[in-house]
From TrEMBL:
Active site: 112
Similarity field: Belongs to the glycosyl hydrolase 1 family.
PROSITE patterns with a match to the protein in the record: GLYCOSYL_HYDROL_F1_1
InterPro entries named in the record: GH, Glyco_hydro_1, Glyco_hydro_1_AS
Full protein name: Uncharacterized protein
Cross-referenced Pfam families: Glyco_hydro_1
GO biological process: carbohydrate metabolic process
GO molecular function terms listed in the Swiss-Prot or TrEMBL record: beta-glucosidase activity
Organism: Arabidopsis lyrata subsp. lyrata (Lyre-leaved rock-cress)
Length: 213
């Protein structure tokens, strides 16, 4: 029940309206009058309006029920309750099948999927990113399984082609397949993961799965 509540607050909050025209029942039951209501016209306008789904997937969360302190006013962070995350490639297959089974299997692009390393590594350490290769390889394998399950997948975009400024973490972590010298951005080097993608993945197709860099 905790996991279902969390996924409806994090995921169903956005997808339920564009597929079914309303927020998830769990959200309505939990939030009561704090949750705005769609008018009939708004519901009709938004229902079925999705052309494709762009899904960002990095990790899976473990959800547990956690009672909110009575001294803490309810808010967007306390409503879903507690969750911890972990890199877990099979979770990508699981969420794609969840979408297929619960949201009419829309055309879906994996718009972000990636693996971070610390931003203070030496150049040699940054270029030898075997962990990133294993992470992308494992996720692509699970993506292939999801396609074989019947999930309507059109493409996969790894995050990211180059090291860059990350929205919430600045330069402290790096997701890039290519290393960038942030004091001289014209200085860029291929990491082992970029070489792997170039030689092992680009051009490979499994039904409708492909990688775009």
């Amino acid at each position: 029940m905790a996991a279902r509540r969390a996924i409806d607050f994090i995921f169903g909050w956005f997808l339920d309206p564009v597929v079914y025209g309303d927020y998830p029942k769990i959200m309505k039951d939990t939030l009561g009058e704090r949750l705005p209501r769609f008018t009939l016209l708004e519901s009709q306008l938004v229902k079925g309006s999705i052309d494709f789904l762009g899904l960002n997937y990095y990790f899976t969360q473990y959800g547990t029920d956690s009672l909110r302190s009575i001294s803490t006013p309810p808010n967007i962070q306390t409503d879903p309750r507690d969750a911890n995350f972990v890199y877990y490639p099979p979770g990508l297959r699981q969420i794609l099948n969840y979408i297929k089974d619960n949201y009419t299997n829309p055309l879906t692009y994996i718009t972000e999927n990636g693996f971070s390393t610390f931003g203070n590594l030496t150049l040699a350490e940054a270029l030898a990113d075997q962990g990133r290769i294993e992470n992308h390889c494992s996720h692509l394998a699970c993506l292939k399984c999801a396609i074989e399950d019947g999930c309507n997948i059109a493409g996969n975009f790894p995050w990211s082609s180059m090291d860059n400024y990350e929205f919430s973490s600045g330069y402290t972590i790096c997701f890039g397949l290519n290393w960038v010298n942030f004091t001289n951005p014209a200085d860029r080097r291929e990491k082992d993961s970029a070489k792997w993608v170039k030689h092992k993945v680009i051009g490979y197709k499994a039904t409708m799965c492909y990688v775009v860099i």
